[in-house]
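Troubleshooting: if your tokenizer reports a length mismatch, compare your output against this known-good record of 428 residues.
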Amino acid sequence: MSTWNKFIQVIDGELNLVRAFNEPCRSDNPSCPEPLQCINGYCLCSNIGKTVDAKNLLSFWTGEECMICPLHYTTSGAKCYTLILGETNQLTWDSARERCQKDGGDLFVIRRSQEFESIALFIRSNIKENEMFQKTPRNGTNFASIWIGAKLADWSGEGKYDLISHGPSITKRNPYWCKQNSPLGQEPNYVALKATGERQTCIGLALFKGTLVCMHDWFCSWKTYTLCEIHPPPPRTTTTIIIDTDMDVDEELLISMTNTNKLNKALWTNITQLKLLNKEGSSVRFLLDKSPFDENDDDETSINNTEYVIIGRILPNSDIFKESAFQIEMKLTSNYPFEPPEVRFLTPIYPPNIDKDGKFCHPLLTKTTRWKHGTTLIDVVKAVVEHIDNPDIDYSVNADIGREYMENRAEFNRKSLGMIQQYKLPRN
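Known-good structure output:
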């Protein structure tokens, strides 16, 4: 029997052991459950601070596991975040969001007052006065603007601002808005540009010379700095039961009750990114058909704790494939993102990089070579589309098709088109 208090949560009707994250500990008697460590008197995943060494990556607690922060991100213990600075690195709101998603996260969301204060301090300590490139409409005062994850949904009444992730709702009454005595005046104000009619609907944090940090609305098409975060997905409904360590509780029973079907946090983030690829104009198109997060999913294999399955359609761009979509399956183990997924074509197709069972061969999907834990499912989809449009013969699994592609392209195209006509799927 361990000596630390045990907490059991009833999550979606299942019992789960809650780790003692951020609880006090002593170096002589740490009592922190793995993978947490006793660091500076508290049970944490790693030191708090900025990851500056690729050999010593810091991490944060998701509620179920320790997740590594990318290089140059700062961890608070419960999330990690970074500021993207530099005059040439300023981005529109949409581009800023895409930039954050490349790291497996999204724009920063403020979820409580303590978090606002800590991120305000972080901004003050990282942005210098000569890096304040925005100017207030009122009197031209320089300030720095930093995009966060909120956008106006409805201006009427008290207003409503949609968050890109879970968190408390934002209205015009939110205490973080810039006040009347700030250089920006009272925010939000929903100002419109005379030239285009665009209104200020995207939300940022403003930093002024006097160290004031407050929230303001701004034109989504204007370029500012970016504040990214990597944060666990929304919490599920929970009920907490505290079991004192003096009670006669069977340790093995507690462990067995925590063996539940928990969806991987990195997977949740990656699926959110994949959904963005269904938009016209994306460099690579992907239509998500099925994921482990689908409601009313009765497929046990898609939600168990050892294997996750994602199904969707890629939309190649080459002349012979551009009129059709091809359904693929990405199968991930519980070790994702530290192990690559297995990719298999469900729609028959003729390229040399696919074996008789539909398995796609690519060096990115080999754990011992190019796969890194920061590689995303968007990277996987891009690799699949690229190698369908332009097959890499060095990775042919069918030598005859590879030779035909190199030596008799017309015959290769004829056979490919014949298979497309027979099995093609819609591109919408």
